[in-house]
Structure formats: structure tokens, C-alpha cells
Amino acid sequence: MARALVQLLPFEMAILGLLEFVILFALIFMMLTAGGQTLLLESTDLPHDCLVLAAMLAVTIAGTAATIGLYRPEVCLDRRRFLLSGTIAALLAFPAILLVSGAYRMSLNGEHIVWLARLLAIWLPFVLLVRFALSAIAARLPMTRRVLIVGTGTRAARLRRRLAAKRHGLFEPMAPPMAPTDGAARETMRECPDSGRPGGLSARLVRDWRIWGIVIAEDEPAPHTHDALLDNKLRGVPVFSDLSFQELHLGRIELDAIDANWLLFADGFQNGTLSRAFKRVFDIAIGLALTIVTLPLMLLTAVAIKLDSPGPVFYRQERTGLHGETFTLFKFRSMAIDAEVAGKPQWAQKRDPRVTRVGAFIRASRIDELPQLFNVLHGEMSMIGPRPERPIFVEELAKVIPFYNHRGYVKPGLTGWAQVNYPYGASVDDAREKLAYDLYYVKNRGVLLDMVILLSTVRVILFREGAR
Predict the structure, then answer these.
(1) Per CATH, the architecture of 145-250 is what?
(2) Domain map (residue ranges) of the chain
(3) DSSP result, 116-170
(4) pLDDT one-digit tens code per residue, 250-308
């Protein structure tokens, strides 16, 4: 549960969200009390009803903002991305607060609807002002966590590149003085100056450079660094292995750092009867609700596909499910009927010429995945889980990627942790990277993480992240 909370909202972003929530609640409460007699026509206890409605509206707006990603570090300090995300959050929050207000004694006439729109019109510039202030502060004080990565091999270099590639990310990779690494990583990260101590790990250097934590990206740190590492840890500086750091803070399991023994003795990997039963109830409830809500959209999509190109509306394909068993997966057809020459499987590519005009839209918006709700209701898939792959791809990937078959110990999902954290995979390297996220889910799955994934899926669909 703690890991899911870290992934949903890092501590710094949680503090920011709490501050904005308190101010938003106070703003709504003042606006309500100023016009409460006319807004809450059915109220018999005006102060109490204003307090409760203010809390409900603040939670609704803040929840919508978090769902869209306004508290992701890479969005928080990027003005352009935040402006776009904030505008979408306000648009989506409007129908939500209409429902909340109508459900709680607020008469929804034209005047009240205008009042709610004015509320969002005040909220958006307010949060923009807060972000601009944060950007100004970040220019003088580092708003990211500086991480000193210790290691001389490919694991250390890979971690440095991964962190450096996250523009406006929460972590800034730092290298010990003269740490050998590849040129690409060296150009995108800062190097701590030599402090005169072996390895450049003295407590003074860590303090002067405001190092938040130290990550050991090798099997065992060099003997001459043990004392310095222990000294820093006892002074309160977090010290991680690259495996634990990536699992806790990046939501992935580094495949190069694990073996069969680690899988055998690691915590997590819970798959008891009760958890399976609860997940099945969750799948049926969410799947049935989404099927009812999206049925008109599915009917319109079916008509559009028939008008756009010859061929069936649905696309049926054999996929690998739980414990390697195969099942027939349903999707809306998005490619021409002769997409695979001689039936030979092919990875989907960017701007794939096989995709039809309607297909391009429904793939980008993930509408083509909606028929998989019937697979969920039938029990072959779950709402949340690894992406179901074709048996021939599973067989090929299992030969070159260690532990690939271990993702099959949970049902494949309509959405999943890998799907919301990594774009569509079309190569062995992509499959390996996505497996790092799939194994994280297999190890840490639970109700809270499933809710995080569902909320993140909304963001992925709205911003068309990773579709092909």
C-alpha cells in the first residue's frame, strides 16, 4: 500500500496538493457563505451545509486535478504542460461538481450553474499562479531530489540515463567525481566536485550538494566506500540499492538486478483465494458499469468501421492468458482485413500503413479496446493486469527475456501498470522494459494500486500517450 501511495503522489507533491486543497476549500466556503441563502434553497442548517458542500466540491476538483496529472512532478513545473492539463481538468471537473452539487441540496438553476463555472474560472488561474511561483523558486532552489548514483557498470549508467531523461522529473542524478560512465549520461547530469575522500562520498560533500539519497548501482559497493556510506546513512541520508530505489520510486523492477532466489524470497506476490475473489468482484462491477456507459459509443464505432472500410466490425485474435492458457480476444477492427501477409504476425509500428482512417482514431483514443470488456466479464481478462500478448510473441520473448513468463501468473488486463508507464511496445527491447513494470505489478498488486492505474488510464487516454 505504501508503494502505491508513493507512486500516486510523491511526498513533495502531496504537500503541494494539501496546501492547494485547504486554500480551495476556504475559497469555496467563503463563496458559499456569501451567497448561500440563494444557492442552498433547501437548506435548514446553512453553515453546516456550506461546510459539507465546500468539502465535497473541493475533494471533487482536487481529485479531478490529481487524475489528470497536475501533481506529477514533470507536469507541475512545466508551464505549458500544466496549462493544457489544468484546462482539461477544469472542463472535466465541471460536470462532476454539477452532479455533486445537485446531489447535495443545491438547486441547479441557471444562476447556480454560472456560479459553479465562476468557481472553476477562479480556481484555474489560482493554481497557475501557484505553479508560476514554484517555477520561480525552482530557478533559485532545487525542487528535485538530488540522487548520488554510485557504480561503474552498465546498471549505473542505465539508471543515470533513465533519471536524466525525465524532464522536470522528481529526481536529479548526480555522479561521484570521475565516475566512469557513457558520454550521453555525462552530458545530462552534474558531477559532484572531489571532496578529497575516496569515492567522493563524504558527509560534507553530501551536505554541501544537498544530496537527498545515495543509490548503489552495483552488486556490492567498493570496500573503501563502506565507511562513508554507513556514515551518511546514520546521519539520515537514505541509501538504496538500485533495485530497491527503482521499485519504490520508479515503480519498476530492474531485471538485471534480480535472479530466481530474489523472486523466491522477496515480499509481495500475494495471490490468495480471498484476493482473487475480491478482484473478480471488482472486475465484474467496473466492467459492467463501463459496458453500460460506453455501449452507445461502441455502437457508433461499429457503424463508423462498416462505413469506412470493408470487413467485419470486430477483430478476433488468440492471446495468452492466465498460466499460459489461450483465449480469443475481441477488439474493434482498426486495420485492413489483409493486414498480415500470409498470416505472419507483425509488430504494430508508428504511422502503420495497415491502419484505416477510423482505425487511427480509435487506436489513439483506445476505443478499439472496449470490446475487451466482454473478455473481462467472461473471466478471461481482468480490468488491471499485463497486456495480453499473442502466443507466438510470448514464446519468442520468453527465449530472450528472463522471467518473461512470470507475468502470466496474473490475468492479463484491459489496462495495466506497464501500459500507463510505458508507450506501446514494438520490439524486444520495449517488451523487456515493459516487463520491468509488469513484474512490479505482479509483486505489489492490490486494490490501491489498481485504483492508481485506473486513474492514470484516464490521463493516458485523454493525452493519447503511447498509442500506435
Answers:
(1) 3-Layer(aba) Sandwich (3.40)
(2) 2-138, 145-250, 273-462
(3) HHHHHHHHHHHHHHHHHHHHHHHTTS--SEEEEEE-SSHHHHHHHHHHHTSTT-S
(4) 999 999 889 989 988 988 888 888 888 999 999 999 999 999 999 999 999 999 999 99
